[in-house]
Amino acid sequence: MISADQLEEPQIYEEEETGAPVCASKNSRYKYDICVLYLSDRYLMYAGCSGFCIFAIGHPSAQNNLSCSCYVAEASKWTRHSSVFTNEQKWHLEKPHIEVMIHGPAHSETNVTVKCSTYTFFSCELHKNTQRIEQMKRSSTDSEIYYDIQNARTENEGFYQCVCVYGNPRYSIEKTSPHVPLILSDQVDEPEIQLVENEAKIVCASKNRSYQYQMCILYQNGQQIRDAFPEYNSTDRVSFHVADLPTGSNFSCLCYTENPSKWTRNSSGIVKGGKYTDYTVMNTIRLGLGFVVILWMIVLAVESRYQSRRYGAFKKSQS
What is the mean pLDDT of residues 90-106? Predict the structure, then answer.
């Protein structure tokens, strides 16, 4: 029986990879023990929970008007109904937020804290340069997880990521934060940044192919928005698809090199929708002009040789 005195409603999400509905407490305020899923306000199914609930019903794209309510055993109360999840209006579980905090000036042998904020029901590992280095520990606030580096050295530089997992015997969810840089020493030459393919793509490339890149980070108006790794064998450049991003924004990038393992300086800025050079077109034009020059030189050489032979034949006939 559901009493009139109900708790704050849960938020219903779609799990991005599988599309399964997830019911979780806003700001992780409550730990749910049971949740009931409704389809157009009619009972559909229930699930036992370990903090929040995952309904393993496959992709619900054909199921409209989903909502849920949940039971909190600690308070002996049910929540109100969540807002309605539809094909047109849906929410996704937020990715973990990651932050690198340097205590004091950025230099070798300073202390560093990596902080990850996420739902209380996730456990998180810290990865450096895509390799797992440590299980992270929770703070007293419960939603924040920390990893401390005492007397950080140059070898601690790199790109860090939180990999957070929630699992129960039947289902699991993994959410990953963006990669963020830790910079403690001198940086190498900045990459060149180019807008190509009718402004649908940004390319960050090493000048004169001086460095091989492990990954690059893209900034929009000074805020980190994306990170990416080199494609195939083009390790001196990294591409970002930006067709969905607004014009008028200023973009720059920062890359982590392979050998030596160092961060570059920030590239110059480039404005989408502003004046810029499409280097793909320019390089094609240059190649075409180069071909024309070479062809013209061949024609001149052949003509010169022909004229020389004619002159020699004329001199011979005169003698």
Answer: 85
What are residue 302's phi and psi, to 5 degrees? Answer: -65, -45
Is residue 300 included in any domain, yes or no?
no
Is 69:78 a contact under the CB 8 Å cutoff? Answer: yes
Report yes or no on 59 lying in a domain. yes
DSSP summary character for residue 287: H
The DSSP annotation for 69-82 comes to EEEETTTTEEBPPP
Average of per-residue pLDDT values in the chain: 83
Q: Is residue 43 part of a domain?
A: yes
CATH number of the structural domain spanning residue 262: 2.60.40.10
**Based on the number of CB atoms within 10 Å of its own CB, is 50 exposed (0-12), middle (13-18) or buried (19 or more)?**
middle
The yes-or-no verdict on residue 214 having pLDDT over 90 is yes
Query: Which of helix, strand or coil describes residue 317?
Result: helix
Cα 92 to Cα 11, 89, 191: the distances in Å are 10, 10, 34
Q: What is the Cα–Cα distance from 214 to 159, expressed in whole angstroms?
A: 10
Residues 6+ apart with CB under 8 A from 224: 178, 180, 217, 218
Q: Is the peptide bond before 96 cis (omega within 30 degrees of 0)?
A: no
pTM reported for the whole predicted model: 0.74
User: Is residue 79 a contact partner of residue 69, using CB atoms and an 8 Å limit?
Assistant: yes
pLDDT digits (tens, 9 = 90+) for 217-247: 999 999 999 999 998 777 899 999 999 888 8
CA dist., res. 32 & res. 78, Å (int):
9
What pLDDT score was predicted for residue 309? 62
